Structures are given as C-alpha cells and as structure tokens.
Amino acid sequence: MKIITSVNEMQEQAGKWRVEGKSVGFVPTMGFLHEGHLTLVQQSTQACDITVMSIFVNPLQFGPNEDFELYPRNIEQDQKHAEAAGVDVLFCPTAKELYPQELPVKMVAVKRTDRLCGVSRPGHFDGVVTVLSILFHVVQPTVAYFGRKDAQQVAVVQGLVEAYRYPVKIVAIDTVRESDGLAKSSRNVYLSNQEREEAPFLFKALTHAKKLAKNHSTEEILKETESIILNNTSGKIDYIEMLSYPYLEKIQFAKGTVIIALAVQFSQARLIDNVVFTLEEG
After folding, report:
1. Active site residue 137
2. Torsion over CA: 58, 61, 64, 67 (sign)
3. How many CA atoms, within 13 angstroms, populate the side-chain half-sphere of residue 21?
4. Segment-wise mean pLDDT, segments of 10 residues, the chain, 282 residues
5. Which helix (H) or strand (E) holds 26?
6. How far is residue 17 CA from its own chain's centroid?
7. Residue 79 pLDDT
C-alpha cells in the first residue's frame, strides 16, 4: 500500500491510472476505521482495478460547538486496517495541503439539507460538498463508495454529482451493524456501559417503524418510534422523521422509496441511524 500526502502527487498518480484505462474505486473517510469502512473497501476491491481511501478529518464539516478536536484519530491503526483490507493508495492530506488558502469560491448545499441532521448542523453539508468536490478532482475516481448510515449525506452527494455532472458513480452500501443491531460508528467509543446497552433500541425502534409503514400515517409511526426511544434509553431525541428519499421531503403516508431516520444525543455521543425502503404500490 502506498501512502500519499501531497495533492499534486495524488493527482499525478490518478492521471496515470486514467491513461492506463484503470478503474478507480474511492472510499472517503475521516479515519478511525471500523468494519463499516472496510466493507466499503471490500466492495471497491471487488469491482475496481485500484482502490483509494482518503483519511481527512474535515474542519469545514464541524460547527463551533462540535467535536472536531475530540473526533477520534489513530492514523497508525488506520494504516494497518487499510493495508490489510486491500487499499492500494491511502491519501492522507493535511488541512493546509487540501485548503492552502482561503477558498475564493464557496459551495452551499441548498437542497436535501433542511431536514434531519441539516437542521441542527448548519453549514455541515456545505463542508461535505466542498471537500468531496476537491477530493473528486484530485483522486478522479470511477466509483465512490459511501455507507447508508449517513443516508442524508448520500442523498446530498448524489445531488452534487448529478447537478455538476461529475464523472463518478456513487454507490451506497448497507449499514454495517454490531450483533445487537447498533450501527457501527467511530463515535460509539464514547458511550458509557449503560448507554451501550441502551443504544440498540435505536435500530429496534426503526425496525418497528418500518413494519408500521404500510398501514399507518407518518404521525402515528413517529409517535410509536419516539415512545420506544424514550422508554428504553436515557438519550435525548434530536429528531425522528419519515421522508421521501432521496429528496427528503415531508410525506403523510409512506409511498415509493422512503427513509425513517433518527438522531439521539447521549452524554458524549450523538448517534444517527435510519432505514431506507421501498413500498410497492397496490
């Protein structure tokens, strides 16, 4: 596995792959790798000639009261995991390397961002589309892989790629879970023992909500989901919503492809989870 920290070197390498006609799979991450990230790598290595993973904790995605400095980091461990998983190139730029000057043009995500995490994290998805726009130009991937756990991010990125005609295919991979259903996340390490026992109820609540979707209204479904969370966890609910997907618009009843998503704040960790599914008509 080759480690690259320079934008120019990464671009030069990507250009060579393009001339050689090689397909490039790209897995953008913020590091502290877990099985969810490595599942994306597995998909890439099976489908593409070259797999590139980036590790970059993007400061533009964090608000003034969020956990940028506390975000877990372990680059040595990440390098071992990436190499073992089959990553060909690990791209690890510094913030100064990726953003050498104040950006003369700002990107603002205006669609699919006024619901779910976008409400409590203003500017977050602006940071996401900004860094991915740069990374897509630097890495020049054929395919980019994302986890469905961050379903709103996937929807926003799909909108970015479609609107600006990026020559990259976006592939979303199902959420990787612990044996008890908890979605794997870098932030799970901040759960107390009691919170770790409570956290699987997030997915249990979503699974129950999905079962109700065919014959109940959005209001009824959200009330039951909220009740499960409140009665079984000590977390504070940030949101629970059922929306169309990927457009993230309000709906009164489930129809077509929908998402039921939630975010719950525990003492030191904010957990998100969702289910996306399609109801057939008739």
Report:
1. no
2. negative
3. 0
4. 98 98 98 94 98 97 84 94 98 96 93 94 95 98 97 97 97 95 93 98 98 96 98 98 97 96 96 94 59
5. strand 24-29
6. 27
7. 97
pLDDT at 88: 98
Query: Is residue 43 a known part of a binding site?
Result: no
Global pTM reads: 0.93
Annotated binding residue at 149?
A: yes
Report how far residue 24's alpha carbon sits from residue 141's, in angstroms, rounded to the nearest whole number: 5
| 36 annotated as ligand-binding | yes
Break the chain into its structural domains and give their ranges.
Answer: 2-173, 186-275
Q: What's residue 281's pLDDT?
A: 67
Confirm or deny that 124 is annotated as ligand binding.
no
**Dihedral class, residue 251 (left if φ above 0, else alpha if ψ from -120 to 50, else beta):** beta
CATH architecture of 2-173: 3-Layer(aba) Sandwich (3.40)
pLDDT at res. 66: 81
What's residue 151's pLDDT?
97
What integer pLDDT is reported at residue 77 of this predicted model? 97
**150 labelled ligand-binding:** yes
Pick the CATH number of 186-275 from 1.20.1560.10, 3.30.1300.10, 3.30.70.240, 3.40.30.10: 3.30.1300.10
Rg (CA), the chain: 19
- For 248, what's the count of Cα atoms within 13 Å in the CB-facing half-sphere? 22
φ, ψ dihedrals at 173, nearest 5°: -110, 140
